[in-house]
Design a protein that fits this description.
Blueprint (H helix, E strand, L loop, with lengths): L4 E5 H16 L4 E5 L7 H9 L4 E4 L2 H6 L7 E3 L8 H7 L2 E4 L2 H13 L4 E8 L7 E2 L3 H10 L3 E8 L11 H18 L5 E3 L6 H5 L9 E4 L1 H5 L17 E14 L22 E7 L11 E3 L5 E5 L4 E4 L12 E6 L1 H9 L4 E5 L4
Parallel strand pairs: 1-17, 2-3, 2-10, 3-4, 4-5, 5-6, 6-7, 6-8, 8-9
Antiparallel strand pairs: 1-11, 11-12, 11-16, 12-15, 13-16, 14-15
Bound molecules: pyridoxal-5'-phosphate.
């Protein structure tokens, strides 16, 4: 066994997925699972698929390529770069788009590869990340509808990312209205109205998601059991799917205030210290190169993270009832960014618990 490691509990992940898929299905919404937080790991993606999602989505082509053996359609979430058009057509079934210049290249490439690529047009409803401005969507839809090799599969939006705008009946209502306008104009039906990410999930639970939204793209709610508009825990899900473990490499009693003139710490900040007298502290072998340290939540509520440098994290264990020894490990739950970083770090071993199927 080597540490630090992140343990991924596949049965819990499957159960989280089942809960969210079921609640969304009650509102006529299908869930695409977003795999970027686990870097498109195919084993983890299998667990999510066994929980009932029918499609996987990721922001990065590298992750979509990793998932190619999985028997499900894939959506590229990040609007494609011109430089990746050939890969998008080869590996992604759907892509989300907001640039006609890129769409023209996708069309050419789809013709070249003899494929029909499905397009979701993104609409910016105020969060100010990607998307066509509302007034420009219809014209874009008309153009895409005429592009050979592409099928206009639907429209979508993304909120609560840059501008932190909360999805509600008003902004998502506009998306549904736009869908109807496009359908009337082009005399066709759009397969997908994609109403956002885990921040839209609360509208499923409170029954206020506008009728007509038929897809959500869900990452965080599945992997952490938390909706992301208000940070509320979701019933019948676990927030312990991903657990980070790191090993104790020093255990000593030391003062809580450094001795000497205080300059800059390892990250160029002037630190501040609270005098708690002499404390019993542990150093664990993990640091800011591996994880967002302030996104780690200790499972032992008696311990407290004091600080970290690139590869050491210092922990006050004075209040813990456990008799920790060198070589023991601490376990942590993780927030979204900490999960993302730990999964991305090549220094953190990935371990799978249980079997999802
Ligand atoms: C990351 C991402 C998602 C999933 O977000 P979560 O908050 O993890 O559910 C959905 N859509 C887009 C476009 C994304 O980039």
């Amino acid at each position: 066994m080597s540490y630090p490691c992140i343990e991924v509990n596949l049965p819990l992940l499957k159960k989280n997925t089942e809960t969210i898929v079921r609640k969304c299905a009650e509102r006529g919404i299908s869930v695409i699972a977003v795999s970027k937080v686990f870097c498109g790991d195919p084993i983890i993606a299998e667990a999510v698929l066994s929980g009932g999602v029918t499609m996987i989505a990721d922001s990065r082509m590298k992750n979509i390529v990793k998932l190619q053996e999985l028997n499900c359609p894939k959506t590229l979430l990040r609007i494609p770069a011109l430089s990746e058009v050939a890969e998008v057509i080869e590996y992604a079934d759907y892509s989300q788009n907001s640039e006609l210049e890129v769409l023209q290249q996708l069309s050419k490439e789809a013709i070249r590869q003899n494929k029909i690529h499905k397009v979701i047009l993104m609409v910016d409803l105020g969060d100010l990340r990607e998307g066509f401005w509302e007034d420009d969507v219809l014209a874009a839809a008309i153009e895409v509808h005429q592009m050979a090799g592409l099928r206009l599969a639907g429209i979508g939006t993304n909120l609560t990312c840059y501008g932190a705008v909360i999805p509600d009946e008003t902004n998502l209502g506009k998306l549904v209205a736009l869908k109807k306008k496009i359908e009337a104009n082009l005399d066709m039906t759009l397969e997908i109205v994609s109403g956002g990410n885990s921040s839209s999930y609360y509208l499923v639970e409170n029954g206020k998601i506008p009728a007509g939204i038929n897809q959500l793209r869900i990452g965080e709610a599945i992997i952490r059991g938390v909706e992301s508009a208000f940070g509320d825990r979701i019933e019948e899900t676990s927030d312990e799917v991903f657990i980070l473990k790191a090993e104790i490499i020093e255990l000593k009693e030391k003062p809580s205030i450094p001795i000497g003139t205080i300059g800059f710490d390892a990250f160029g900040n002037v630190p501040e210290f609270q005098d708690k007298g002499t404390i019993r502290r542990a150093i664990i072998a993990i640091g800011k190169q591996d994880v967002k340290v302030d996104g780690m939540i200790p499972l032992d509520s008696g311990i407290e993270i004091l600080g970290a440098s690139s590869d050491h994290t210092i922990i006050d264990i004075s209040k813990s009832s456990k008799n920790y020894q060198i070589g023991d490990t601490f376990a942590f739950k993780l927030d979204y960014v900490a999960t993302l970083m730990a999964m991305t770090s090549e220094y953190v071993e990935k371990r799978y618990l249980g079997d999802s199927v």
